[in-house]
Amino acid sequence: MDVDYCRNPKCGIYIKPGRIKYCSGDCRNEALRVRLGTPEERHKNLVRILERERCPKTDPLWSLNYYEALLAFNGFRCQYCLGDLSVWSPTGHAMDRVVCFKNGRPVPHTAANCLGGGVCKDCNEVRGAVLSVTDMFALAPKLRELRHRKDVGRTFFDGKEVTTITIETKNPPVVVVGFQKEPDLRIFGPSAKKIIEETYVYTEHRKY
User: Is the distance from CB of 127 to CB of 92 less than 8 angstroms?
Assistant: First the structure.
């Protein structure tokens, strides 16, 4: 019998050949998020905004290579919370303007008016039209702590709300994770090592 496979690169299970390309709606949505999260697709989103705002064609933001370099500058992580953009902002152009409004009118996206790196959707919403870039960087330590806890909860505990992360020892790696409504849990081995590595990324923005 002829077989086909799910087009979601993270799945690939066999399905009956025909018009159906994905094994489920979840796989279809996941594949769409992956495709829209590539630098090329993100840049297309930005280009539409540049066209609408009539940004000069000489501005570097029109260049895909320049745009990719901006995202890569911070390791494809949010400038404020250091969250992985592919996880916490899987679609969208991820550019944050330094000055959003002037004299009550929106200020266009230009290379000179955008941060030198990507910003996740959550941080963009936190900033809104009230906080400045300086305000956001002042909040960055707390934003990074919150994002780290959410990352650990998502990666290791099926999305449970993590309240505290305490490194007991680095060698051997031992981490104590606290939860809102459950007893603390002591983590050992590779999982503890991974949490410690991520803690260094979020607290010191460097590899362990």
Answer: no
Cβ contacts of 76 within 8 Å, gap of 6 or more: 84, 85, 86, 118
Residue range of the domain that includes 81 = 20-131
Rounded-to-integer distance, Cα 158 and Cα 139, Å: 27
pTM (2 d.p.)? 0.79
Question: Do 127 and 144 belong together in one domain?
Answer: no
Q: Are 23 and 13 in contact (CB under 8 A)?
A: yes
Cβ–Cβ under 8 Å, residues 22 and 6: yes
Structure tokens that stand for 28 in this block: 């279809």
Same domain, 90 and 176: no
Distances (CA, A) of 41 to 32, 48, 93: 11, 11, 8
| pLDDT tens digits, one per residue of 64-112 | 999 999 999 888 999 999 999 988 988 889 999 999 988 888 899 999 9
